[in-house]
Structure formats: structure tokens, C-alpha cells
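Our preliminary data section would be incomplete without showing what the modeling component actually yields. Below, a chain of 356 amino acids is followed by its predicted structure, encoded as C-alpha cells that our downstream tools consume directly.
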Amino acid sequence: MDRIAALQKKLKAWGVDGFLASDPVNRNYLSRFTGSDGLLLVLPKSGQLVTDSRYWTQASRELKGASLVRQRRGLWLEAASLVKRAKVVRLGVEARHLTLALAKALGRELPGVELVPLEGSVEALRSIKDSQEKAAMRQACAITDQAFSHALTILKPGVSERRVAAELEHCMRLAGAEGPSFDTIVASGPRGALPHGRASDRRIKAGELVVMDFGCKVGPYCSDFTRTVSVGRASAQQRKAHALVAKAQAAACAAIRPGLACGKVDAVARGIIAKAGMGGYFGHGLGHGVGLEVHEEPRLTPGNPALLRAGQAVTVEPGVYLPGRFGVRIEDLVLVTARGCENLYQSERGLIEIPC
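Predicted structure:
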């Protein structure tokens, strides 16, 4: 179904007679227009994208479900004119992407029009992936798998984290990715206990675990992936921690199905880690949605009552982080299916020990 048409069906239920998409990701999702500047006004029977001459040819090629309106004055003033013309009384807006200054300006331009915050409305539509979105994400994940295989050939004592990150990103671009989906994390030894330890100039040492968390964009959907490997033979403690995280991750993946509360999936993995006496070393949520952004809805976090739905893509990424020593995280991206989930990665999940 046309995405704008799907949103139009929601307007009445939301109690508005127009919706203004200002979040670039939501605007691009609805209209397929990938330019960096524009506003999309969705009315019950039409959609109108306002943009300027820099993007006119591009928008003419990409736009679906809406007509083009050439910006002749300020972008927001042009959109306000369209709202006036359509006699909108209640206008849905994305409050998190509407500054106070812009809200005041709209108020001056649109006296009598009520601005209704509709947070999460487009995001809810985005969370269910169609066949084209799934295909792009599968491709992004396949490229990520390839990059991980390449990384295993260069990991050795003396190599810097930054070099590993550069190799990962270079490999993904050569394979067809548009770029990384977030700042690549390569954290070795004690830095592995930093869940978001971006690559540094630190040089990897023998006997250390290396956490690699990275992904790429394809058309422009994201992948997100983490593996923890040992450079040289792992210690008994490192092996035990890795086995625990792998067990928790596998159990959570096996539990995923439509209708299950996100918090219950988190509880599966968290319970296993807590039972082993390591619950205090797993502080973040189990996972999150992925799509046009690397962090989307739904969130696999403690107590979240939101129910999983078929077509959603979520990460499953438990971890154990021992400050000053090491960290372990294993992350896969899965698609929720009618009966369970489909893992989009093929890479080894067991502990890999790289000879050195």
C-alpha cells in the first residue's frame, strides 16, 4: 500500500484533518523523497511535498503518493499557506521536531489552527517492514557478515582498534553499502566493558577479547551487528562470560513471536544472566527496532508492555561488562515472522579464538 494512503486512513482516528511531517526520516519514509530539505503535508485526500529548486528534479523522480509544491518563500511559510488553503482546523505535528520558535511562527501564520502533537504515529507505521524494506535489510546484513569475515583476517596483537574500524567500513562500502549505519565500535581488553566504546588508537594485545559492533546502510536501511572474539586463547573467565551471553541471546531469539510483550523477551535473556550471578553487569536493554534508523521502535527493554508484531525488525544483544577487565556482547538482527523470527545473519556466534 502507498505509505501516504496508509497514514491518511489514520487521520480521523487521530482527530486531525491534516498532518505535517517535518522529521526528515518520517518525511522520506512516507514520500520516498530522499532529499535533505522539505516538508510533507498529508491531507485526507492528498499529499503535498514542499521543497526548493535544489531538489525539484530529484523529487520529481522519487516522489510517490504526493504532488510537488515549489517553495517560493520560506519552507514553513509555504507549508502554512497550504494548510490555510486546505482549511485545516486541527493539524497533527511532530513535536519533537518542531522547535519553540517554529511553533510560535506557525501560530502567528495559522491563527485558529490547533497544533496537535502526534508522536510515534509515523514511527508505528515504519516499524512494520514491507518486502522491499526487508530485501534491503537482508542485503545490508549480508554485507555486514562479509565485513566481519574480513575483520577476522586482520585481528592480531599490535593492530589498533581504529585500523579494524576503518577496515570494516571500507569493506562494507566496497561491497555496495552507502556507508556505516552508526559510528563503528571496536573495543578491546578493558575498553570492551564500555558498551559504546568507539574505536580508539589503543592497540590490541594477545589474550584480549575484542567487541566489534558495526553496521551499514543499503538503500538506505540499516544493519546492526556485534560479535566478541578473542585474540589468542581466551581465559576460563572470558569463556564462561561468552558462553553465558550466547546462551541468553539464543534463548531470547527462540522466545520471539508476534503478540509477546517486548519486556518479556528482555526478561528471558536478563533472567539467564541474573541466575548466573551476573545480572549487575548487564545494564542496557536487550534490543531495539532497526530500519531507516539504527534505533527505532519497538524497544526490548525491561517491563515494556508493547507487543511484538510480524514484520518488525529488532536486535537481540545481551551483554556482560566487567569494569577494568573485559566485555562481551553478541547481537543479531531478526525479523519477527508469523511464528517466530528470522535471523538475518550467518556469522558464527560461538567464541572465535584467533591464533597469534
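The chain has a mean pLDDT of 96. Residues 3-126 form a domain with the Creatine Amidinohydrolase; Chain A, domain 1 fold (CATH 3.40.350.10). Preliminary results of this kind motivate Aim 1 of the renewal.
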